[in-house]
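Exam revision sheet. Question 4 asks you to relate a sequence to its structure. Input first:
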Amino acid sequence: MSPPVAPPGWSRWLVPPAALSVHLSIGQAYAWSVFKPPLESALGLSGTQSALPFQLGIVMLGLSAAFGGTLVERNGPRWAMTVALVCFSTGFLIASLGAATEQYWLIVFGYGFVGGIGLGIGYISPVSTLIKWFPDRPGMATGIAIMGFGGGALIASPWSAQMLKSFGSDSSGIALAFLVHGLSYAVFMTLGVLLVRVPRGDKPPVKAGPAPLDGVQVSANSAVRTPQFWCLWVVLCMNVTAGIGILEKAAPMITDFFANTSTPVSVSAAAGFVALLSAANMAGRIGWSST
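Answer key, structure tokens:
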């Protein structure tokens, strides 16, 4: 499958909206904690069980991103975004079936395994594509892409809370919320699939700057055989684990913290707390990557 090449005169500024449509969608994963209390109540799950779909999704994100990078480069961003769309949306539909039939394993398999593959493939494709379009601004390009992923919960958390309020927080209400998520994200991600292009052989001029430092060019296959790579991997893994651990428990954590006070936290307020974390996540991603 040959990647779609941009026609003459195609503006590279059409590519960031394509990237954001995918990353804002898959960034819903960071709003999973909004579903934890309803799932625990409706299906009689423990906190560990309600966390498993999210945890498996993050594991599959890492694995599919690590092993799917070559396929993304070979087949192009449109193929990758299509795979992400199908997997992520299908994961929600399977999870919806699981909630409707009260089959916990279907929620884990759908959201965690199938949806997690969509997370990984959908995460790497916009990043690599934007860097190709903005070689003169690589920090900004990366920041735009990962900003969307960090900010996805800013939309998803209040939206999910409102759906649970409208549909109910029992198993049928959760199933309907999952269904709406899956169908809505399929439509939104389709915009990215239709807009994305790869640049032609010519690239935007790179800004003049200091000469690059001399260094040894190392391939990915060679890098994974070095101790430096694994030291950096461990540092990054520990860093990500800390943040992911908070995001996974954000809604029930703020609810439990104020449970025995005169002002208990409502479901909507807990979703607002998750959205606030997402806003800070988004700002940090674009800020640090652009400096």
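Marking note for examiners. The chain has one domain: 12-202+226-289.
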